Amino acid sequence: MRHLLSLVFGAVCLAAVLQAQDVTLRGPSDAAAGSAAKIATTGSGSATFYLVGPSSTVKRDVQLGQEISLSPKEVQTAGRYVAVVCSGSCASAAFFVAPSKPVNLTFVVHPSRAPVAKNDLISGVTFTFDEFHNLVLTPATVDFQLSSKGGTPVSHNVQTQSGAAWFRISSGKAAGPLQISASLNDVVAKRVVQQVASDPCNLRIKGQRTAKGIEVETDPVRDCSGNPVPDGTIITFTAKNGDETSTVDAPIKQDVARARITAKGPVVISAASGVVMGNQLRIGGQ
Amino acid sequence: MRIPTTSRKLLLLIFTGIFVSLASLYSAAADSAPHVTLNTSKATPRQVEPLTERAVLRDYKFAWTNLTQALESNSTAPLNGLFEATADKWLKDAVQDQRHTGLTSRYLNQNHKVDAVFYSPEGDVIELHDTAEYDLEILDGSKTIHNEHAVVHYVVLMIPGAERWVVRQLQSVPQF
Q1: Which residues of B fall within a CB distance of 8 Å from A110?
Q2: Each residue of A80-98: pLDDT tens digit?
Q3: What CATH number should be reported for the domain holding residue A124?
Q4: Which of A49, A74, A98 is the endpoint of a domain?
Q5: How many Cβ contacts (< 8 angstroms) between chains A and B?
Q6: Do A63 and A15 reside in the same domain of the chain?
Q7: Number of domains into which chain A is organized
Q8: Is residue A242 pLDDT above 90, yes or no?
Q9: Per-residue pLDDT tens for B31-84?
Q10: Same domain, A38 and A75
Q11: CATH for A205
């Protein structure tokens, strides 16, 4: 009787060891984010199944020897997953979930306002994401389209590297909105850069003495590409009479800045805007 | 005052116990502190400035320290604003799920070899490739259900925040 019991106990132990040794897991080899997947198991009996992913953890009872189904929601996040089954001892397998197809482009363009005719001033960067916010790393071609009023649209095809594509261009010669779009298949992201006049060019002034003082004004103020400098840009008029110097700041209104200088003797008047100097004007005494 | 021999032995035993406990605590703390190296020489199109390199290295290392603590303690408090947007949501979801299922994850003996591969022209985003090596231990309650030495590749997007560089995307991939 004692021998029989020992034999049964030994057989049970052996079966348990064999069962523990037999349990293996095989994760999916081509799982994609948001798509159902299956994990193959061997062995028999019930077990506890764990799935630890980048943003989720699952724990449930399963039957060994059957496939474990993973719902689309359980594998939405791309990355490395560890699947574990425990029945007495534990067995595990790691597998990767790949991002699904790109449906979203993050597109950042700098600057939002750009002076015209500046080299390598405008740049844009885009990253491709799937619907679950996974970065899509498979190389893809992003089409950057640039168009401005009166200009010929320009297209740049750039292949993503590690999910990123970028461009850098010089600003155009004409002020106005520059429409920039990044597209990948049916996904399009649009941005606008406002191109504005650059610094004034060939600043010229004229003036005459009147009963109330010296009236000075600029010619229409334009940048070197011929774009009118925006209203509100300050022009500084400086009048020198011997050792005396007086200055007047005047904003451009409708392309022209005007100022009145009160000086009785002969004066030399000049104008400046930022670092740009204009011509000198000599006005005789009263 | 004379201490009896038995009491002396008892005191010695207590002090040895305290010493061993402190040593193991120190060892655990040392194990969980990530070791991170950053190479920015391959970054394009913009060159990474030395100050930026130091800041990215400091904050990425800090981010992993916080991630480790969060997943080990099942608390989002250690995340401490170093993760943003998708990375922040994923981590918070992971912590919440772990808490719900009673699991914890431990990342021990971390070693991260990080390469900056993309630094945007305006310096407003940096992409890192991190080859991370660590011992991953997953526990259900106090029972270890998984233990492995893993080498995992991460693609990371970091952006400059108000005071720190923050992780916006932390995604593991089979290879670069």
Answers
A1: 121-122, 124
A2: 999 999 998 999 999 999 9
A3: 2.60.40.1930
A4: A98
A5: 110
A6: yes
A7: 3
A8: no
A9: 558 999 999 999 999 999 999 999 999 999 999 999 999 999 999 999 888 999
A10: yes
A11: 2.60.40
pLDDT in tens, B4-31: 555 666 555 555 554 444 444 444 444 5
Q: Are the beta carbons of B101 and A92 separated by less than 8 Å?
A: no
B140 contacts in chain A (CB < 8 Å): 48, 50, 59, 86
Residue percentage of chain A with pLDDT more than 70 = 92
Supply the pLDDT for residue A19: 46
User: Residue A112 is part of which domain span?
Assistant: 104-196
What is the CATH code of the structural domain delimited by B33-173?
A: 3.10.450.240
Q: Does A8 touch chain B (CB under 8 A)?
A: no
Q: Tell me if B90 and A57 make a contact (CB, 8 A cut-off).
A: no
Cβ-nearest to A134 among B89, B117, B171:
B171
Q: How confident is the model at residue A11 (pLDDT cuts 50, 70, 90)?
A: very low
- The answer to whether B146 contacts A108, with C-beta atoms less than 8 Å apart, is no
- ipTM attached to this prediction: 0.83
In tens, the pLDDT along B90-140 reads 999 999 999 999 999 999 999 999 999 999 999 999 999 999 999 999 999
Residues of B with CB under 8 A from a CB of A: 45, 85-86, 89-91, 93-94, 97-98, 100-103, 105, 117-118, 120-122, 124-125, 127, 129, 136, 138, 140, 145-146, 148, 150, 152, 155, 157, 169-174, 176
**Would an 8 Å CB–CB cutoff place A34 in contact with chain B?**
no
**Average confidence score pLDDT of chain A:** 90
Domain boundary residue among A72, A98, A124?
A: A98
Which residues are CB-contacts of A170 (< 8 A; sequence separation ≥ 6)?
A117, A118, A119, A120, A121, A122
Domain assignments of chain B as residue spans, ordered by start: 1-32, 33-173
Question: Considering CB atoms only, which of B127, B172, B174 is closest to A164?
Answer: B127
